[in-house]
Design brief:
Blueprint (H helix, E strand, L loop, with lengths): L1 H30 L4 E8 L6 E5 L1 H5 L18 E5 L2 E9 L9 H5 L12 H30 L1 E3 L9 E3 L1 H6 L6 E5 L2 E2 L7 H6 L3 E6 L2 E6 L6 H5 L5 E3 L5 E4 L4 H4 L7 E5 L2 E2 L3 H13 L7 H7 L1 E8 L2 E8 L8 E3 L7 E3 L3 H22 L6 H6 L3 H7 L6 H20 L6 H14 L5 H30 L4
Parallel strand pairs: 1-3
Antiparallel strand pairs: 1-4, 2-3, 5-18, 6-11, 7-8, 7-9, 9-10, 12-17, 13-14, 13-15, 15-16
Helix pairs in contact: 1-4, 1-13, 1-14, 4-11, 4-14, 4-15, 11-14
Length: about 475
């Protein structure tokens, strides 16, 4: 059921974003009186699942309807709307434009005043950037409405009474377990999230609260964010070790763990908190070689545990689940939470600020894609699906949809032929040089860009498959 809910969320979220993105192209095309022949969600190679041809726009303008096959009317504005069968995006087919439809026969005809190719370069530029602008506007609007509807609930840094947990790299720089990171390069951390690691990665110094006093720690300013995010993380919220609930039939139940128990050691290694336990379990799994057999996995999952329940201490041998867990939930610290409410008009600057920070962070992280670790972290549809929760939660759905909208906007602005950014680059070139690239050049660029995108799509989803089978 959880998988089905994830799939539905991905389809609804991406479907909405595709419609908004293509709608941006559509609106600017209509604004500049450019004919839009098709508006499709998903691709319709050879056939489609649904299509309709109406003249609602002409009716809105109080003009007579135009038959579907009528092509001679300069004021023709009818559009075919449909749903394709290949769920890899969507498109609007704009007359007189070399795009993914590769309608070269149309380009052999004499240019017409309602076609894309006869419009001024600045109008063509806005038509191509319309989808990207719509993605960013949608993201900022969604963030604003989420803040208006649900507010912002968080744990203030000073209310994290157990402090934070640091890995060996952080400790070598001077951090200590129990420290609370207050700021980095004078950027105040109102609360803690993994996004704060991005700020720390480029910071020259950090200020922590240790035993009620502020301590300054010097940093290099060029730490690798991907390495900081690896388990155990550079810094994370400290979680005291205490079993809260047990899954029936789990290894935890079989060895006698009950609510309130604490694991003191695993395979002879002391466990001070849940962070230590999680790190040890991750270490066991990552210690398996890529060509490990089922017997190797079984051996790695056999562990010796020392746990306590009050004054009683017990020893037990356990076999972890296939995903290297005991099958229990740890108790969440009962921290004081703070909730900030936003009025309707207050939510817009707050949503814009939040969205801008998300945009800057995503753009900043793109540099890691060109590293070995970054390339391995690239994912496709399975990765996108896994970011959604297994239960339907509207707040999470909209927050993730806004983030995907930002990602879609940034990816499309890249100057790659076949993407909006590639088309926009050619328009900018024309505006600056007053020389228009030839149709032949645009055709070849479109083909090259198309195969490049297909290659990236295969690469991303291949990474997903390799991770699914534990080969990466």
């Amino acid at each position: 059921m959880e998988v089905l809910i994830k799939i539905v969320q991905v389809v609804v979220s991406l479907g909405l974003l595709i419609i908004l993105h293509e709608g941006g192209h559509f609106l600017f095309a209509k604004l500049f009186k450019t004919r839009v022949e098709k508006f499709y969600l998903f691709f319709d190679y050879k056939f489609h699942l649904f299509s309709t041809y109406d003249n609602w726009f002409r009716k809105l303008l109080k003009k007579p309807s135009v038959p579907k096959k009528e092509n001679g009317d300069p004021e023709y504005v009818g559009t075919e709307y449909g749903i394709g069968w290949i769920p890899l995006g969507g498109y609007v087919k704009i007359a007189g434009m070399i795009d993914e439809s590769m309608d070269l026969e149309q380009m052999k005809q004499d240019p017409q005043p309602w076609e894309f190719r006869t419009k001024p370069a600045w109008q063509r530029l806005l038509i191509m950037l319309g989808g990207i602008m719509m993605n960013f506007i949608a993201a900022f609007f969604i963030y604003s409405m989420v803040l208006f509807a649900w507010g912002k609930e968080y744990v203030k840094s000073e209310d994290m009474t157990y402090g934070m947990k640091f890995n060996s790299t952080a400790k070598s720089l001077g951090f200590q377990d129990g420290d609370i990171i207050k700021s980095a390069d004078d950027v105040e951390f109102e609360s803690w999230s993994a996004a704060n690691l991005r700020t720390l990665s480029s910071a020259k110094h950090a200020t922590v609260v240790r035993n009620g006093k502020e301590v300054e720690i010097s940093l290099s300013g060029d730490m690798n964010l991907l390495e900081m995010l690896e388990e155990p993380r550079f810094a994370d919220v400290r979680m005291p070790m205490e079993v809260d609930s047990i899954m029936p039939g789990s290894p935890a139940e079989k060895i006698g763990l009950t609510k309130g128990c604490k694991i003191d050691s695993l395979n002879g290694k002391s466990i001070a908190d849940f962070n230590d336990l999680h790190a040890e379990l991750v270490s066991l799994e990552s210690g398996l070689k890529e060509d490990a057999l089922a017997m190797d996995s079984l051996k790695a999952r056999q562990v010796h545990v020392v746990f306590s329940d009050g004054d009683s201490v017990r020893n037990a041998d356990a076999t972890l689940t296939s995903d290297f867990t005991f099958g229990f939930m740890n108790k969440t610290p009962d921290y004081k939470t703070t909730k900030k409410e936003y009025g309707f008009f207050e939510s817009f600057p707050a949503g814009l600020s939040y969205g801008w920070n998300q945009l800057k962070g995503y753009v900043s992280d793109l540099k890691y894609v060109f590293t070995k670790k970054g390339a391995k972290s690239v994912g496709g549809f399975i990765t996108i699906g896994n970011i959604f929760p297994g239960v339907w939660d509207w707040q999470s759905f909209w927050m993730l949809t806004a983030l995907l909208s930002i990602m879609l906007g940034v990816v499309n602005v890249l100057p790659i032929p076949a993407l909006d950014g590639g088309h926009a680059l050619f328009c900018i070139y024309e505006i600056i040089t007053r020389r228009k690239p030839s149709d032949k050049f645009l055709e070849r660029a479109q083909v090259v860009g198309f195969f490049l995108l297909i290659g990236l799509l295969i690469f991303a989803n291949l990474n997903d498959i390799l991770r699914l089978f534990g080969l990466m």
